[in-house]
Each structure stands twice: as C-alpha cells, then as structure tokens.
Write a structure and sequence with these properties.
Chains A, B, C, D, E, F: It comes from Methanolobus halotolerans. Chains A, B, C, D, E, F: InterPro entries: Agmatinase-rel, Ureohydrolase, Ureohydrolase_dom_sf, Ureohydrolase_Mn_BS. Chains A, B, C, D, E, F: Keywords: Hydrolase, Manganese, Metal-binding. 6 copies of one chain form a homohexamer. With 289 residues, the first copy, chain A, is of the alpha/beta class. The first copy, chain A, has a single domain, classed as Arginase, Chain A (3-Layer(aba) Sandwich). Chain A contains 9 helices and 11 strands. Chain A has an 8-stranded parallel sheet, sandwiched between helices. A two-stranded antiparallel sheet of chain A has the order 3-4. Chains in contact: A-B, A-C, A-E, A-F, B-C, B-D, B-E, C-D, C-F, D-E, D-F, E-F. The interface between A and B is medium-sized, with 22 and 21 residues. The structure holds manganese (II) ion (12 copies). One manganese (II) ion (MN) binds next to loops of chain F.
Chain lengths: 289, 289, 289, 289, 289, 289
C-alpha cells in the first residue's frame, strides 16, 4: 500500500538479488559544474516514468531479481569516500551479485572495478564510454579525481582497456594514449566505422570474456544529455550508446552510470541514464536466460 | 492596433474558416508529469516566433482560412471533459471544417476522432505518432485515461489503425498488438526502413482515402521535445515526424497535437509542436489547391 | 552504510513509532497549477538540509520515535484515492500513533481527519491554515475536490472548526462562513490582533482538548512559499505559522502539510514545509515529555 | 464553451466597459534584464488563479464592466511605440473609460498619463510607486527611456508629483529631487511613518482630486517580486503597496503596472501584479458605488 | 594567482595578439525572445569547461596568441551601438588581427564585415550560417535590425554571398533570393548533398580567397542549441556546423557568433557556441602553421 | 570602450586601492547544495544592476578607490585552497588595504580573518552573521569544513566573538556556545530586542575597536535569499542585515560574503549580496571621511 522511493521494479531483497543497484551521492572533485550528488535520487524518480516491460529483449523487469540498496553515506573527502565505497561494494560482488553503481562522479568507478576484478576468475577488461580520457595521474592536486579514473584502472587493475566517445583531453593524455597503444574511439570514429564494426573490433582487442562497463554520461552528445558536470559537444547519440550497451552487457560483471548533474536540465539526462540502466539489465538478463 | 493572444495567422472568423484550432487545457489523467494543461497557450506564444510563409509548400498562412476558437472550458473529471469536448468538436466537423485540437493529454483525441468518423462519407483510418501503444482497456482505474486512447479508437471507431514511433508498453500491449495484427513501426523500424517506404506501406495497409492524424509529441526523441508528460528515449527525429506529417496531412480530416508539458523546458517542445502544426496546415492546404 | 531516501531522522520502525509520516503523491483535482504529487519526495530531500536538533524545544529528532512509511499508491480518481488513503491511515491511528500526511492536494486531509475523529475519545476540533475557505460543496464537478475539504470536514466530522490565513473565496463561501458563524482569521486579522491573542481566542472557541491540524502551505505568503498550486498574495509570515504550530501541536492528534508544488521554485517551499513539519513534531514531543 | 486567453473576469465588450485593460509587450530600452514584453500575457495566465470575488470591498469582478482589449502591436523603436500607444489610449480615455495599461517597460506610462491629463476637467496629479526616480532627461542616448519617465511627466504633464518606494538613483537625481522640492518617500520612510500617515500627507500635498497612478513593480521588495528588470533590495512590502493602492484608486483616472519580467521567476511577480491590478479595480469600483 | 573572468586561454595582450575576441552585449532589436546581451559572459563562463588542447588540429590554445578585449559599452539604440562597434573593430582589423565578435544580436555583424572588407587587399566574400535569410530592407521600423543584416551586407559590402542553414523567411525574402540568384543551402540541402560537396560548391561559387564568416546560432537545430532568440526547428546538426567551420576558417578574415540567449537553457547553447569558437580558432591557426 | 567583467565601480588599480575585492570560487566541502563556486561572477553580473550612488551615505562608488582583483585559482582540496588564499590575502592586508572576499563557502573566511588579525595593532573581534554556529571541530571528516569556521576562528584567532542570526546547530554546538559563554543572537532575539539595542550590546561586549565582519548569506531568511547552500527558514530580514552592516562596517578591517549558490534562484541572492557589499563599502568609506 505504501512504497518507498526506490528504483522502480527493484522488488528483490538483497539476499535473492542478481542485480544490486546503489547510489553514491558524491561529487567532491567535480571541476566545472557539480551536482552529480543528486543523480541517484533523480534516477529513482525518473524510473517511475517507464513501463516494466522491455520489448526488445521480451523481459519484464518485475520478473528479474533487482535490489535497490539505497545510497552510500558519503564524506567530503574523496579518499575516505572511495574507501567506504570499497567496503560497500566488496560483499556485493563476493555474494555473486552484479553491482550497479549510480554516481556521483567518475572517480567512484575505481573501487567497483577493483572489487569486480578481485572476484573474477580471470582478468577482466574495462570498457568506458566517456567524452574524456580521464588518464591524468592526478588533477587539481587530487590523485583520485574524477578526471583520473581511467589512469588508475590502467595502473591498478587491468590494461585490457577501451574507451568510446572520447573527444577531449590535454595534449599529454592524447600522447599517452598513442604511446601506450590505448584503444579509443572518438564519436567521429563511431559514426564513420559504425557501432557494429567497432564492437567487433573491441571484442577481438580485449580478448577476455568478462568486462566492467562504465558509462560516463558525457559520452553522449549534450543534445541527449544536457545535465552533466562537463558537457562536451559532438558526442555519441542515444542510439549508439544503447547499441553498445546491448552488445557489452552480456559479458559485464559490473556496471555504473556517472556524472549526471540533474540540476542542469528538466529530467532529460536522468531519464536517459535510467533508460540505459534498464537496457543494460535487460540485455544482461537476456544473456543469462 | 490591439491584437489578442491567438495563434498567429489565425485571421479567419469561424464562419469562413477551413481550419479551426482549439485548445483543451486538460491533463487530469497524466501519470508521470502533468502540465499539458499549459500547452495550448504555450503554443500560441510560440507561434509568434514563426514567419507567415512556408517555402516548401509556397504558402502564406495569412492567405489560408484559419480560426483560433480559444480554449475549451475544462472539468476535473475526464468523462465530463470528453463529453464537453464532444459537444464542442461536433459542430466544427459538421460545418465542414477541419478540426485541429491542441491538448492537453492524449485521451482528448477520442471525441475528435469520433466526430470526424461520424461525418466522413466513408470509413476513416487512424494514424497516431506515439512512443506508447495506449492500448490498455483502462489505467489507474480510469477507462478514458490518456494511456488508453488507441484502444478506444480501435474499439469504438475504426480498426484501420497504424501507430508510428511506438517503443514503450507493458507486455500485454505488445502481445495484444501482435495478436491483433496491429500495424506499428518503432523508431528503429523508421530509421532502418526509411520514412518513404513506411509511408507507402501505411498507405497500402490502410486502404482508405481519409484518416485522422494524432501526434502525441512523445513520439519524438526527448532531444527534440524535452517538455513532455512521459518522455521516452530513442524516439523519432524532428525530420522524420515532419516528413510523415507532410505525407499524411493531405488525406487527414482531423488533427491533434497532445502531451506537450511546457513547464519542463524553455519553449523547445511548444515551438516544435507549433511548427509541426504549421507544417500540417500547409501540407493539407497545398493538397487542396 | 547504505541508507534509503527517507525523511531524515525517521529512524523508528512502524511498530515502535509514535509519529508515522507518509506521503500521498496525488494532485488530480488541482485547478491552477498541479505538481503537489512531487511534494513528499521533495520534502524528504529537503530534510537532508536540517540539523537533528531543535534548540527551542531542546529535542533531538533522533531521540524521537519517527517512522517514514513511504508513499501511498495513488489512483487517477480522487474517490478511489481517498478510499485507499482511508484504509491506510485507519490502522495508524488505531495503533495509537500520530499520523502525519504529506500531500499532495488538500482533499487528502478528509480521510485523515475522519480516522483521527473515529479513534478519539472525545469530539475533536479541526484547525486549518489556508488562504482559501475550501467551503464549496463541490468544484468543477467533483465533490471531493481540494477546494471543498473544509466543507466536508464540517459536514462529516466536526463543527469545532477554525481557519487561519484565509483571504480568498467566492462570495458564497464568505456568506456561508458568516451565516454559519464560522471562526476565521485573515492574515490582516493575525497581523493586527497578534498570534498570541488569536491563539487564546481559538482555544476558548474550540473548547476541546484535541484537534486535527492541517497546513495548506498557501496560507503562507508566496514570498516564503512560492512553489504552490494556487499562490495567493498577502499571506501569513513564516514566523506566524511557526508560532501557531508551536501552540497547537501539543493538542493535535493528526497533522498534514499539503499543496506544495515543488516544480515552481528551487526548493524554498519544500524546505519551509519540512522545517514546519519538524517544528510540529518537536512541539508535540515536548508536550509529552 | 470556448474562451480566449483574456484577463479573467474581463467579460465586458469595449462599448459597455468602464475599465479597459490592454498590454504593451515592449521592453526595448530595458537596461539590465529585459523580458517585460512577456508580462501582459503572463498576467492574463496568472489571473486564472484568482477567485472572482473581493471580500474586502464585497465586489465580484464579474459584476463590473471590464474589457481586455488585447496587446498593442509593438515596434522596435521606443518613439514609434509611444506614438502608437498614444493613438491607442486616446480614444479609450475620450470614451470616458478608465485605461489600465500592462507593461512592458515604464516609458510606456507617459502617453497614458498625457491622454488622461488631456481629458481631465482639472489638473491631475501623478503618483508613482518605483524603486527608481526615473528623473533623468535621457539615458543611454534615448530620451524616452524607461529610466526617464518621471522626468517627462514632470516636464510635459504635471508637477503634482509624488513617488513612493524610491531608493535608487544617481547623485544628480537625488539632487534634482531635493532642489525641486519633489515629494518622495523611501521604503524606510514608509516603514517609519506608516502608510496611513503618508497617504494623508500625499493627499494634502497634491491638492487635486484626480491622479494617474503608476506601479513600477520594482517598488516592491524582490522577496515579493523577484521577476523584475531592475530588482532593488530593501523595498516595499506587498501589504504596503496594497494599502497605498486601496487609498489612491478611488481618485485615479488611469493606472498601469510595469516592469515585471516573468522569465525571472516562477509566476510570483505576475501573480502579485495581477492581484494588485484586481485590488485597484475593486477599490475604484467600490468608490463609484 | 588571481585571474579575471576572461575567455579561457586568451592569454595574449592586445599588442601581440593574432585573434582578438570581444563581446557586444546588445540585443535591442530582438523580435521574439531577447537576452543575447548575456551571451558574451556566458561564453566566457562556458570556456572554463574545455581543455586547452584541440586534438583534431593538434593545437594547444595556450600556444596561440588570443586576446579577450572584454565587452563593448552598449547603447539602447542600434544605430549608435553599430557606430560604437565600428570605431572599436576598425583598429583591430587595421592592426592586422583577426576580430572575433561575440553577440549580441545579428545586426552587430555589419560593422565587423565592413571593417574586414575595408582592410582586405581584395574583395571578400560573406558566408553566413543562419536559419533566417535576414534579407529584409528594414524590420519593425528599424533599418539595422537583426533581421536585415544579410541585406545590408549585400547592399553595402559584397555580393559574394552564401547562406547555409536557411529555412525561414517571408515570401518576399525567398523571392528576392531567387530573383537575385543568391546562393543558399537549406538544412535539407545539406543533409541530402553532404557537407563536403556543398563546401566545394561554395568555394567555386565565391571565387575569392578571403571571407568573413558569421554564425547565427539559430542555424543549428534547437536540439543542439535551445537557448536562442528565434529558435527554428529542422536545423543543422552540431557536426555539420563544425565541419563547415573547419573548412571555412582558414580563409576567414573575421568571425562572429551571434544570437545565443543563455537565459533559455542551462548552458547548452553557450557551451556549443564556445566550442565552435574554439574550433574556428584552431582550424584557422592550423592553416597558418 | 571595452570593459572587463569586473565588479562595477571597481575602477581603481591595486596600488591605489583602499578596498580590494576578490572572489574564491570554491565550494568543495558544501554539505547540502553546492554551487557557491559561481557566486563571485554572479555578483559581478549583479553589480551592473545598481546605480553608482549611495544616497544614504551620500557617496558615489566611482569616487572611492575600489579594486577587483579577479578570482583566486582554486583547488579541489580545502587545505590547499586555504593555503593559496592565505598567500593571496596576506599582501593585501599588509599593503594597508581592506580585503573583501566573495565566497565560495564559509571555510574561506579563516585565512582572511587571520591575515587581518596578524596586521592589526590590537586584538580584533570577529562578528559573523550566520544561520549556523559553525562551531564543530570537524565535519564529515574534514577539519576546515565550512561548518567549522567559527570554531577555528575561536581557537586560532580571537575569542572576541559574536554571531547574529544563528538558529541551527546540533545539540553539541548549542551546549558549547552556552558553556563557553559565547555571545549569540537568534533572529527571534533580533526581532524582539531590536537591531539598535543589540548592536549597542555587541559593542560593549567586544570591547575592541576593530573587527572582521563575515556575512554568511544564510543568516537571511530564504524569502530574501533563496539561492543558498543550506537555506534555513525563520531568518533575518534584509533591513536587519543592512542595519547591522551599516553599524559594524566603520570598525571593520576585513569583510566577506559567502555561501550564495546562484544556480538556485534567478539572481535574487546575488543581487542582495552585492547590494549588501555596496552598503558595507559606503558605510566604511563614510566613516573615513
Ligand atoms: Mn569520466
Ligand atoms: Mn567525462
Ligand atoms: Mn499517447
Ligand atoms: Mn505517449
Ligand atoms: Mn486548501
Ligand atoms: Mn489553499
Ligand atoms: Mn520606473
Ligand atoms: Mn524602477
Ligand atoms: Mn540572423
Ligand atoms: Mn537567425
Ligand atoms: Mn557559515
Ligand atoms: Mn550558514
């Protein structure tokens, strides 16, 4: 009769859950516009807009085992927050569940990737959709800045790394990417080569059966997602991102959506992010049928 | 010297009019975000932005016989509102004019379709652009809910029915659509098959010379129309919808644009809706030259 | 480690709770601007802004037994919604808890008053803060319209009725109020007579030890609460409303805050409403010490 | 059945009208924020929020003879706009009706005052509520700038001039005001002396039975009216302005409300302006009973 | 340690500068929505969002000689403003620098084109991206209206004129364009023919080595740039405009971006405009390497 | 001819300046809503709204020696930012100028107070207007959190401390305040005792001729300043704050305005903050005449 403000269709309790969604309302290192702290709750609100059924995969979300764990207590300091997040995500992965983190900023991805890598029976890859390389060693005096997450994944977790949608970074990052043979696709690459071909290339390149998938919403063009921390024109379309998620979800052992700043639009970015979250879950669940 | 806040270029009085525009500021059954009650006046304001001339059809709207009848008195209850609307639209159609209804919500379409069907000399078809099937028998305890309009048209008016842009609905609606051989095109279908080919298919399928055309603005992708009651990602582009309207307007005996919620953007959806309204009128008028 | 999006400091489970807060996201009969459906969740978000301690009453909310039950499932139709609400609030009162309803629109007050009246060991009074009389028998064809709630309380529950802040109504309501000797105070009355004197008059007038207290936020001046369904200038100040709540909370057996439309400001009205909710609880709890 | 987007309760046709309301959507000389072009239609929308009855004066607006003439065609250039306005307002006054102009910017007041002065059988006074002196001879290279309106009224119409709420101006304006013995009241004066006493002083000072009353909404504190072209803190309260209007309306032969910029709030300023418009009409009509 | 609110990476002083950016916060002839007065500062704020490096051209903006001169003092009257602008831009061009004007409205382009034409050693062409022809002789009683800029360039500067993105204008403008053999491309032309082919046609058509390039942001579809004075659906995509700028920048002797109204979105249009400004500079600088 | 986006009337260069204004766009420890990073530039924009003349003090700001130094480069980490700020403010005070800091968050006050104290020839007092005590030793794991600034001033600078407008804090802060005999005035105290009487008490209590004055804008009621990080109802009025600043400015050796979050209103809070800044300067300058 009464219901809580949870992600719609997240009807499972923790124990029975296959998918555990949780929010981390932390945006402490945001450099341009902050406010991704409000994204997890905005996405829960957005989820009320959608039907429970996904026709493409013929899946009803109510039939899946989805749990919404709520939001993580957050700190002012990024290091403490990452540590707290690390403690929180570890048991979720250990319990054999697929963690879905709703940021908050991109720095939050690192502990989630690490937890997934630790519990995988083989090396996992890391595929990130992002307008930015996030390859800095540190930024504005902070190592675990949102602008450095990919570098830390490379350094600390895996070098099976692909980034899609990238179109912004200092000269050093582009040089680093080239010198280290990092696999990246700009939105122009995606438009010219086609999603299908790129996905096939990525599959060959990674050579692993399991990945962690991270969606920095600024990978999308601001026409589709104007409410972002660092919006970057000339981005991916909603369809391109959807098709990439459809293809990669089946092999994903963890997923996140980060960098939505809901105060900068009228729900558009949270709605699209939530829809993409649902596409991820349906695509993954379909692969386990 | 003074002018009223009417739709621009609606210079005709009722008697001489070929096109009668009217608003119905009713959104009483809206399920996610309400506010389409403000759409008719927002569209009148938006109309001040546009030139009187349509170059594609070489038509000046000031040369057409367009009347803006104002807004319908509305009720809290949907049943009474539909009845009132039925009384209002009936004489417009009886007088041989083409009614153009500006919602308000999609439930308002039904009395308009019925009036047009009653006065047609043959069976009319119903073509709707919508993200949603709207095929429920009832929703949230209300039969004439905005989420049921297509079902009622099917039940009460015509089975010459096509829906374009559909991408959302419960399992039951997709099953109903398949079981009943309902003709529908998702935005992916439109992208892959092309507007032209689809329009030719629709023409063959309907096999009738007259249709009622209903534009639920959520058929469009939220990038083009963010101010909606139930925005649904992965939608049609502005160009696709324009081309469909261009093709279908000539055979239309009634038209409506519904589900714009102008409080959720900065005029974008009302501007596009108003532009599409003008494209409809020009396309129709060109066919009568 | 994780926490849900509940009202802050609502740490008790239902069984142990003294105060049970719940939202009813229903605004189906709203006549001017809708959107109070978003108020309960907006107030939960606003609650994160406040300290757990109330210095005036020397009370820490974390020490009180407050439960947040979540939001009521809602219908499109007001009658069904009121029935559902009636079922929901009944056991709360029966269990000896003080119900605190967060609207949603003012019509939702009636089932709450009725439940409280049914379980009181004596006749209860009804004190409402409102810009409007809400004394119509019906409005826009709907009996249980938000604009009629006071009339139905008078007809169906109690004639120990006082309204504070009233400044708007049709001639019939003012006539009805005068003919029936209804006790009302305009904001001008409050400013001229003073809150203290008026509260003493009310106490004498009611002659009962228990009341239900209802706060229609439009009692406040729009300077303090711009995000409302039907904002009415020349209203009460925040301090006047706070002082009235401080005085009346101790004898209240039920409470509600209604008619906040959070889409029409940047959090101001939800923040003030939430603060007044907290003042109510502290004042009531202090009286039970 | 259908109704136009006019000021609510403006039910009279022009011929029978006692009060003729019209908008002038012109803001071409606005210096800080523009947008008062949208105010007339915003006030019509706001008028839907209010009851038809004014209890203070026991008057139902539907019983009065109010006509809404619509909006004046506007030009880019202020001089042409003022000329057009002059042509438009002249016959209204000549026909013995009370003109009520909704700006647009303050420069629009001048032709209205002139028309009223021309048709008065005695010298009229000019009382203006404004945060600014508007006593410049010209501003930014434009004589009939919004920042000069009072000077032109003084020069071209009447020296029976009082300004209330003034708190901003260059040194020259304050010096001019003092040297020329101009009667002005700052908001501090109003707070300290009291509305009643000031109104009595003004009455003595003017020594005339008829005035034109002009309300620049920035006379009010931005807490009450945030949506303004040039908001100025430390202003008048809503109650002070209401009481001044109540007192001066009976002797007014013309009235205007200017400088609302509705894009800069969520309806607050248009709602208050519309309410004050209604208070003016009720107070004036009560005096003619 | 302290830095001023200038365009990011505009590190050069005037003397050493190759590119001189300046704003003209003037929108006095805007016909639908005003507010482009706020665009120059909004673009400076937006510039903080972007990296200093452009990977496509392998250029770091910090290595270029860019100067931000600030904003021009503005007048109410367009004629005086254009005169002031003429005085301001003349020495910039005379000093051999490339002027980049940030409007403000489109009328401001004329003095900039004239200054560039005066100092060119050959006839220059004029290429404008715009939804509108801007070919009127005068508009709303004002010759140098924003809606007339192209006509005045044609009349007073050069007939080597091309407009891209045009889709709106009165019958007279379309007729004028056809009768005078004006080269124009609608967005449909661009989509059907392709950017590359069109650019090659333009190059042949103009037959000159130097052009002035003007970007009226309403050339873009409102999905990409919703914050505009006169938004027009069915426009160019961000990629199309970027590619056109890339191609034309090398031969440009002057550039402007006009008609952004930042109050009508959440930074989207200013961000895209600023990005396109940066693409222009990089493309031009790359051609001078 | 061109002018930079500086605080209006800040015409002096650094060397000649008596008042040095600078912004610190840092909000890294904000706990509820962030965004005070945008306040310094928002206040510069707001300053364009105001006349150069202050009639109350008969002072023209253009005659004063005011310098706007721009914004401090900021870090992600509060400790580094405070250190950077310390380096920046030190020479300003050493050079005998009065520093005026525009936050950013309240933690930024500490280095400014310290610099002023270091260079004063006697012990200085600290008077802060704030809704919050800010007396925590640390908050959310961060010592120099915005919620701790008063405690650090007490610990590290001076115990001549008074806070006005305080109405929120955990039990520990109220206890600490009482146990340590801290002088505080709630808004209720101010209303009941009167500004004049309180200011006289403060003067006696402090017993020093020089103070640092800090204005946390949340001291004001949200009706006057809705755009805040942590808005707290029941606050001070604009007039109360103005009168306190008038009285304390003459003895102030440093001043700041912090915690405005301009994204949460339409300019209201930045406009009022800027006005109060100007009142401070005029009151101080008048005392030096
Ligand atoms: Mn990232
Ligand atoms: Mn990114
Ligand atoms: Mn529909
Ligand atoms: Mn739909
Ligand atoms: Mn009510
Ligand atoms: Mn009410
Ligand atoms: Mn004025
Ligand atoms: Mn003014
Ligand atoms: Mn143009
Ligand atoms: Mn244009
Ligand atoms: Mn503070
Ligand atoms: Mn504070």
């Amino acid at each position: 009769m009464f219901h809580k403000a949870e992600m719609m269709d997240a009807l499972a309790d923790y124990e029975s859950a296959r998918y555990v969604i949780f929010g981390v309302p932390f945006d402490g290192t945001s450099s341009y516009r902050s406010g991704s702290r409000w994204a997890p709750d905005a996405m829960r609100k957005a989820s009320e807009n959608f039907e429970t059924y996904n026709a493409y995969f013929d899946i009803d979300y109510e039939d899946l085992l989805i749990h919404d764990a709520g939001n993580l207590e957050h700190y002012v300091n990024v290091d403490e927050t990452l540590e707290e997040l690390s403690f929180a995500v570890e048991p979720i992965v250990a319990d054999g569940k697929l963690p879905i983190m709703l940021g908050g900023e991109h720095s939050l991805t690192l502990p989630c990737v690490k937890a997934c890598a630790r519990h995988a029976d083989e090396d996992i890859g890391f595929v990130v959709l992002d307008a930015h390389f996030d390859l800095r060693e540190e930024y504005c005096g902070v190592k675990y800045n949102h602008a450095c997450v990919s570098r830390h994944v490379l350094n600390e977790v895996t070098d099976k790394y692909v980034t899609i949608g990238v179109r912004s970074g200092p000269r050093e990052e582009w040089a680093f990417a080239k010198e280290n043979g990092i696999k990246y696709y700009t939105p122009d690459d995606v438009r010219e080569t086609g999603t299908k071909e790129i996905l096939s290339e990525i599959s060959d390149y990674l050579g692993c059966s399991k990945i962690y998938l991270s969606l920095d919403m600024d990978a999308l063009d601001p026409a589709y997602a104007p409410g972002l921390g660092t919006p970057e024109p000339f981005g991916l379309s909603d369809i391109e991102v959807r098709d990439i998620i459809h293809a990669l979800a089946p092999r994903s052992v963890g997923f996140d959506i980060v960098e939505i700043s809901p105060e900068y639009d009228n729900g558009q970015s949270a709605l699209l992010g939530t829809k993409l979250l649902r596409e991820f879950i349906a695509a993954h669940a379909a692969s386990e049928r």
